[in-house]
Recover the amino acids of this structure.
Protein backbone atom coordinates (compact mmCIF):
# COMPACT_ATOMS: atom_id res chain seq x y z
CA UNK A 1 0.00 0.00 0.00
CA UNK A 2 1.29 3.42 -0.87
CA UNK A 3 0.22 7.02 -0.71
CA UNK A 4 -2.14 6.23 2.16
CA UNK A 5 -4.73 4.66 -0.13
CA UNK A 6 -6.17 1.19 0.29
CA UNK A 7 -5.09 -1.25 -2.39
CA UNK A 8 -7.79 -2.65 -4.63
CA UNK A 9 -5.54 -5.51 -5.70
CA UNK A 10 -7.48 -8.79 -5.66
CA UNK A 11 -10.54 -7.07 -4.19
CA UNK A 12 -12.84 -9.38 -6.16
CA UNK A 13 -11.67 -12.43 -4.22
CA UNK A 14 -13.52 -11.26 -1.11
CA UNK A 15 -16.36 -9.44 -2.78
CA UNK A 16 -19.89 -10.70 -3.31
CA UNK A 17 -19.78 -8.94 -6.65
CA UNK A 18 -17.00 -10.74 -8.50
CA UNK A 19 -19.30 -11.33 -11.47
CA UNK A 20 -20.13 -7.63 -11.66
CA UNK A 21 -16.43 -6.75 -11.50
CA UNK A 22 -15.71 -9.22 -14.34
CA UNK A 23 -18.54 -7.76 -16.41
CA UNK A 24 -17.29 -4.21 -15.81
CA UNK A 25 -13.77 -5.29 -16.73
CA UNK A 26 -14.90 -6.83 -20.01
CA UNK A 27 -17.12 -3.87 -20.81
CA UNK A 28 -14.41 -1.28 -20.21
CA UNK A 29 -11.70 -3.20 -22.04
CA UNK A 30 -13.77 -3.96 -25.13
CA UNK A 31 -15.40 -0.52 -24.99
CA UNK A 32 -11.99 1.10 -24.93
CA UNK A 33 -10.85 -0.92 -27.90
CA UNK A 34 -13.99 -0.05 -29.82
CA UNK A 35 -13.34 3.65 -29.12
CA UNK A 36 -9.86 3.22 -30.59
CA UNK A 37 -11.31 1.42 -33.61
CA UNK A 38 -13.74 4.30 -34.17
CA UNK A 39 -10.90 6.78 -33.59
CA UNK A 40 -8.91 5.12 -36.34
CA UNK A 41 -11.75 5.43 -38.83
CA UNK A 42 -12.53 8.99 -37.68
CA UNK A 43 -8.91 9.95 -38.40
CA UNK A 44 -9.09 8.40 -41.86
CA UNK A 45 -12.21 10.44 -42.50
CA UNK A 46 -10.57 13.64 -41.27
CA UNK A 47 -12.97 14.17 -38.33
CA UNK A 48 -10.25 15.55 -36.07
CA UNK A 49 -12.59 16.78 -33.33
CA UNK A 50 -14.28 13.39 -33.12
CA UNK A 51 -10.89 11.68 -33.19
CA UNK A 52 -9.72 13.70 -30.16
CA UNK A 53 -12.89 12.96 -28.20
CA UNK A 54 -12.74 9.23 -28.99
CA UNK A 55 -9.07 9.01 -28.04
CA UNK A 56 -9.72 10.59 -24.64
CA UNK A 57 -12.70 8.35 -23.96
CA UNK A 58 -10.69 5.31 -25.01
CA UNK A 59 -7.79 6.08 -22.68
CA UNK A 60 -10.10 6.70 -19.72
CA UNK A 61 -12.08 3.52 -20.32
CA UNK A 62 -8.85 1.61 -20.73
CA UNK A 63 -7.73 2.79 -17.29
CA UNK A 64 -11.15 1.90 -15.86
CA UNK A 65 -10.54 -1.57 -17.28
CA UNK A 66 -7.20 -1.62 -15.48
CA UNK A 67 -8.92 -0.80 -12.19
CA UNK A 68 -11.27 -3.78 -12.51
CA UNK A 69 -8.39 -5.92 -13.77
CA UNK A 70 -6.45 -5.06 -10.61
CA UNK A 71 -9.49 -6.01 -8.54
CA UNK A 72 -9.55 -9.34 -10.37
CA UNK A 73 -5.91 -9.93 -9.44
CA UNK A 74 -4.65 -9.85 -13.01
CA UNK A 75 -1.32 -8.44 -11.83
CA UNK A 76 0.76 -9.38 -8.83
CA UNK A 77 1.13 -6.70 -6.18
CA UNK A 78 4.06 -8.00 -4.13
CA UNK A 79 7.10 -5.78 -4.76
CA UNK A 80 9.32 -8.42 -6.40
CA UNK A 81 6.53 -10.04 -8.43
CA UNK A 82 5.20 -6.67 -9.50
CA UNK A 83 8.54 -5.46 -10.85
CA UNK A 84 9.12 -8.83 -12.42
CA UNK A 85 5.92 -8.42 -14.42
CA UNK A 86 6.98 -4.94 -15.49
CA UNK A 87 10.40 -6.25 -16.54
CA UNK A 88 8.76 -9.01 -18.56
CA UNK A 89 6.77 -6.40 -20.41
CA UNK A 90 9.95 -4.45 -20.96
CA UNK A 91 11.64 -7.51 -22.45
CA UNK A 92 8.74 -8.19 -24.80
CA UNK A 93 8.61 -4.57 -25.93
CA UNK A 94 12.36 -4.34 -26.44
CA UNK A 95 12.33 -7.47 -28.61
CA UNK A 96 9.21 -6.56 -30.58
CA UNK A 97 10.98 -4.62 -33.34
CA UNK A 98 12.82 -7.43 -35.15
CA UNK A 99 9.86 -9.81 -34.71
CA UNK A 100 7.41 -7.30 -36.15
CA UNK A 101 9.75 -6.55 -39.03
CA UNK A 102 10.00 -10.24 -39.76
CA UNK A 103 6.20 -10.47 -39.80
CA UNK A 104 5.94 -7.40 -42.05
CA UNK A 105 8.49 -8.89 -44.47
CA UNK A 106 6.54 -12.13 -44.58
CA UNK A 107 3.17 -10.55 -45.39
CA UNK A 108 4.82 -8.17 -47.89
CA UNK A 109 6.43 -11.11 -49.67
CA UNK A 110 2.94 -12.62 -49.92
CA UNK A 111 1.74 -9.46 -51.64
CA UNK A 112 -0.02 -7.70 -48.72
CA UNK A 113 1.67 -4.33 -48.75
CA UNK A 114 -1.02 -2.51 -46.73
CA UNK A 115 -0.76 -4.94 -43.83
CA UNK A 116 3.02 -4.86 -44.01
CA UNK A 117 3.01 -1.06 -43.68
CA UNK A 118 0.52 -1.17 -40.80
CA UNK A 119 2.74 -3.60 -38.90
CA UNK A 120 5.81 -1.49 -39.64
CA UNK A 121 4.05 1.67 -38.44
CA UNK A 122 3.93 0.25 -34.89
CA UNK A 123 7.62 -0.60 -34.59
CA UNK A 124 8.91 2.81 -33.48
CA UNK A 125 6.29 3.11 -30.76
CA UNK A 126 7.00 -0.39 -29.47
CA UNK A 127 10.67 0.58 -29.11
CA UNK A 128 9.57 3.75 -27.36
CA UNK A 129 7.50 1.66 -24.91
CA UNK A 130 10.68 -0.19 -23.99
CA UNK A 131 12.73 3.00 -23.76
CA UNK A 132 10.18 4.64 -21.46
CA UNK A 133 10.32 1.70 -19.07
CA UNK A 134 14.10 1.68 -19.25
CA UNK A 135 14.15 5.34 -18.16
CA UNK A 136 12.13 4.44 -15.07
CA UNK A 137 14.42 1.49 -14.27
CA UNK A 138 17.43 3.78 -14.58
CA UNK A 139 16.06 6.58 -12.44
CA UNK A 140 14.97 4.08 -9.77
CA UNK A 141 18.26 2.22 -9.85
CA UNK A 142 16.55 -1.00 -10.87
CA UNK A 143 18.76 -3.38 -12.80
CA UNK A 144 16.20 -5.25 -14.84
CA UNK A 145 18.79 -7.91 -15.75
CA UNK A 146 18.52 -9.25 -12.18
CA UNK A 147 15.05 -10.59 -12.92
CA UNK A 148 15.12 -14.10 -14.37
CA UNK A 149 14.14 -14.16 -17.99
CA UNK A 150 10.90 -15.84 -19.01
CA UNK A 151 11.23 -15.03 -22.67
CA UNK A 152 14.06 -15.30 -25.18
CA UNK A 153 16.90 -12.84 -24.68
CA UNK A 154 17.87 -10.82 -27.73
CA UNK A 155 21.01 -12.29 -29.31
FE1 LIG B 1 -15.62 3.66 -18.38
FE1 LIG C 1 3.74 -1.91 -26.80
Amino acid sequence: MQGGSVSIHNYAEHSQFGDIIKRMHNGEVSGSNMYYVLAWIAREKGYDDLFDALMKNAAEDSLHGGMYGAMLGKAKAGEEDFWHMVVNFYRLESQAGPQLQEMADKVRAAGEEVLARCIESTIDEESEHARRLEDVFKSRGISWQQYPCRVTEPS
The mean pLDDT is 93. The first helix runs from residue 18 to 45. Residues 76 and 138 are 22 Å apart (CA to CA). The chain is about 70% helix and 0% strand.
